[in-house]
Amino acid sequence: MTGWEPHAVTTAELVDPAPVAALAALFDNGLPAPRPGDDLPPLWHWVALPRWPVSSGLGPDGHPARGTFLPPIDLPRRMFAGGEVLLRRAPKIGETVTRRSIVDSVTEKSGRSGKLVIVVVRTVLSGVDGSPLVEERQDIIYREAGATASEAAPGEPAELAGAPFRRGDDGWGFATDPALLMRFSAATANAHRIHYDWPYATRTEGYPGLVVHGPLMSLALAEVLRLDSPGARVTRLAHRNLAPLFCGQPAHLRTEPRPGGATLTLVGDAGPRTSLEADYHEEGTSHA
């Protein structure tokens, strides 16, 4: 990484109502769509503040080319590993905020799957008066390529799943299909090809199918709080992606209440995929 140095990127941005409406339509879970002037729901800043790089600035995997804001790491697989979000005050939809992001650390390690690099990015969203609204840490992992998928890999789901949230006797189910992944990629300006390009995902990166976005899984868990605890005032969310979920695989959203919050887990057939630790209190009550 000779010649590369971390540097802060600061921009003034609109909390855009259009992608917020797009995410509400995508979730289609019966909750009213947030409107201009409303509080932005937890984690929805990932959608409301998309960054669209120019087409010539994309790398071969569809992500922005490395070596500018992110370090020039030569490992091919990029994974959204997790992070933590502190919510000081919810941004208002239609509000202009200041976003400041910087690479906080770059750590090289060796794991069971070979060499990997962990990049930590810190972002602060502030109001026009300079007061912090959202403080965030994101952990990004770069890894070596996996083995090429075999001919026995499952085929793409043929049928669209419809509304992704399914209420059941034991909680919520979460269904995915290629259209859902494509629409979420568009709403978040995410051109990572593993989410929509079947030949690239299976032949180049060695996955058995399209990969469900890590942020989509975390957002689905955060949405359960809005569905089941509409009066919850969320102050902290710590999310961790444990394993990939592939398009069309069944998943369940489980909630375990605890004092001052809850632990939520997205579970697939092969076990937990994503976890979310949420701290919150009910509106009108004090902190525990």
In short:
By secondary structure, the protein is an alpha+beta fold. The chain contains 5 helices and 11 strands; from the N terminus they run E-H-H-E-E-E-E-E-E-H-H-H-E-E-E-E.
Tell me about this structure.
With 288 residues, the chain is an alpha+beta fold. It has one domain (8-282): Roll (Thiol Ester Dehydrase, Chain A). It contains 5 helices and 11 strands; from the N terminus they run E-H-H-E-E-E-E-E-E-H-H-H-E-E-E-E. The chain has helices spanning 17-27, 45-48, 178-187, 198-204, 214-228, and strands spanning 9-14, 77-87, 96-111, 114-126, 132-143, 165-168, 171-174, 232-241, 251-258, 261-268, 271-282. It has an 11-stranded antiparallel beta sheet with strand order 1-3-4-5-2-8-11-10-9-7-6, with helices on one face. Helix 1 (17-27) runs antiparallel to helix 3 (178-187). Residues 57-135 form the FAS1-like dehydratase domain. It comes from Amycolatopsis dendrobii. Residues 257-288 are annotated as: Disordered. This is MaoC family dehydratase N-terminal domain-containing protein. Residues 276-288 have a biased composition (Basic and acidic residues).
